[in-house]
């Protein structure tokens, strides 16, 4: 019997494949198309000639663990033990998978807030547990009445994504206070907080679970050097959690990947001595504003983008097509690949919205906008 009989190729693979076939501008998959910092390439080139190519320690390269502890203290005023409360993972996806496998038992329930990234549900199903998909409000803020309604003694975990992919929404102080209130009566509930875009926020500052005294002792927090340092292909992430929780994840991690790329870890460790993570927000603030200004001349209505490098847009004034059909036609007729938001929902909710990735060179964004402007002219 198959474990995932209803799982197909992801929409990200589908749209990128279509973009290649039709020579379209790919604003679908979430990765930068610009070169990484030359200082990083210099570091990698030099370290590649040293004796750094054997297994790293299972939990991570010790100097990098120290750097993460320092980063966490500087940004969130949380002191974590680098040897017992941090785990380097093979990307954020492995951190999420290992965490769910470590704690979720058969018949448990795990709450996922839709629209949601596609890597959350599969490890729950593989654990023979039940994913409970709850819709966010239309503005992508959490619906605490619905969350409260679905909480029970069976609820083992609640997965948060903040800043949020695909919408770019970030949680407010009020949101966290509400969450803290409604989970008081569920002491066995764990929080898996996906914060991979934590350093890509704009007007409002990201609030991390690292700063929440009532939550951090029951939370596992996922971060991504791939997102922060524009190194998505390196697949290097990390997990922060109290020792009693992290030791359980390490049991899965050691048999899943054992350890993570040693050259990449050593290179990131050295790079963090010369790189200021505040630069990331400034880079993407420019790109967000630049892209939004370009799209003012199109027929799309832009939703707020508070964080991440994704811009959500409504095409209600353009077409009444289903969003999947609309995005495919954008590729075939206009040469721009995007992602339909319905794929992020369990029930395929279609609000006539699509997601653009603006982590691209300015010239490419300008070319995409020139093509998108034609949609207004032809009124498809």
Explained architecture:
Strand 3, helix 5 (about 120-125) and strand 4 form a beta-alpha-beta unit. Helix 2 packs across helix 10 (about 260-270), helix 3 (about 60-75) packs across helix 10 and helix 11 (about 280-295) runs parallel beside helix 13 (about 360-380). The longest helix has 18 residues, at about 280-295. A seven-stranded mixed beta sheet has the order 2-8-7-6-5-3-4, sandwiched between helices. A four-stranded antiparallel beta sheet has the order 9-10-13-12. It has a two-stranded parallel ribbon with strand order 1-11. The protein starts with 10 loop residues before the first helix and ends with a helix. The protein has 13 helices and 13 strands. The protein folds into two domains: about 10-30 and about 275-380, Aspartate Aminotransferase, domain 1; about 40-270, Type I PLP-dependent aspartate aminotransferase-like (Major domain) (Aspartate Aminotransferase, domain 2), CATH 3.40.640. It has about 375 residues and is of the alpha/beta class. This is Aminotransferase class I/II-fold pyridoxal phosphate-dependent enzyme. Its cofactor is pyridoxal 5'-phosphate. Belongs to the class-I pyridoxal-phosphate-dependent aminotransferase family. Keywords: Aminotransferase, Pyridoxal phosphate, Transferase. InterPro entries: Aminotransferase_I/II_large (IPR004839), Kynurenine-oxoglutarate_AT (IPR051326), PyrdxlP-dep_Trfase (IPR015424), PyrdxlP-dep_Trfase_major (IPR015421), PyrdxlP-dep_Trfase_small (IPR015422).
């Amino acid at each position: 019997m198959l474990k995932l009989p209803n799982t197909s190729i992801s929409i990200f693979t589908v749209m990128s494949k279509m973009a290649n076939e039709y020579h379209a501008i790919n604003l679908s998959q979430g990765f930068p198309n610009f070169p990484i910092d030359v200082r990083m390439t210099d570091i990698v080139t030099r370290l590649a000639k040293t004796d750094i190519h054997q297994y790293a320690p299972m939990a991570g390269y010790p100097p990098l663990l120290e750097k993460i502890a320092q980063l966490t203290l500087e940004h969130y005023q949380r002191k974590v033990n680098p040897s017992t409360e941090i785990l380097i993972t093979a990307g954020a996806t492995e951190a999420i998978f290992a965490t769910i496998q470590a704690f979720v038992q058969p018949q448990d329930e795990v709450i996922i807030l839709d629209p949601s990234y596609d890597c959350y549900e599969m490890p729950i199903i593989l654990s023979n547990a039940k994913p409970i998909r709850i819709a966010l409000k239309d503005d992508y803020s959490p619906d605490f009445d619905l969350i409260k309604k679905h909480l029970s003694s069976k609820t083992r975990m609640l997965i948060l994504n903040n800043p949020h992919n695909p919408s770019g929404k970030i949680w407010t102080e009020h949101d966290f206070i509400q969450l803290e209130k409604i989970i008081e009566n569920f002491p066995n509930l764990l929080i898996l907080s996906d914060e991979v875009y934590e350093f890509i926020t704009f007007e409002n500052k990201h609030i991390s679970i690292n700063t929440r005294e009532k939550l951090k002792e029951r939370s596992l927090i996922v971060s991504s050097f791939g997102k922060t340092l524009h190194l998505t292909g390196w697949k290097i992430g990390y997990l922060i959690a109290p020792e009693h929780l992290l030791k359980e994840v390490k049991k899965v991690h050691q048999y899943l990947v054992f350890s993570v790329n040693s050259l990449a870890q050593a290179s990131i460790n050295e790079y963090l001595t010369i790189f200021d993570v505040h630069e990331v927000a400034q880079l993407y603030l420019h790109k967000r504003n630049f892209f939004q200004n370009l799209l003012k001349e199109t027929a799309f209505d832009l939703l707020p983008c508070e964080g991440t490098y994704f811009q959500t847009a409504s095409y209600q004034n353009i077409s009444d097509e289903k969003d999947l059909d609309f995005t495919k036609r954008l590729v075939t007729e206009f040469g721009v690949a995007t992602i339909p938001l319905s794929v992020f929902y369990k029930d395929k909710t279609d609000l006539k919205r699509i997601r653009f990735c603006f982590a691209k060179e300015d010239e490419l964004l300008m070319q995409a906008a020139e093509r998108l402007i034609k949609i207004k002219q032809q009124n498809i």
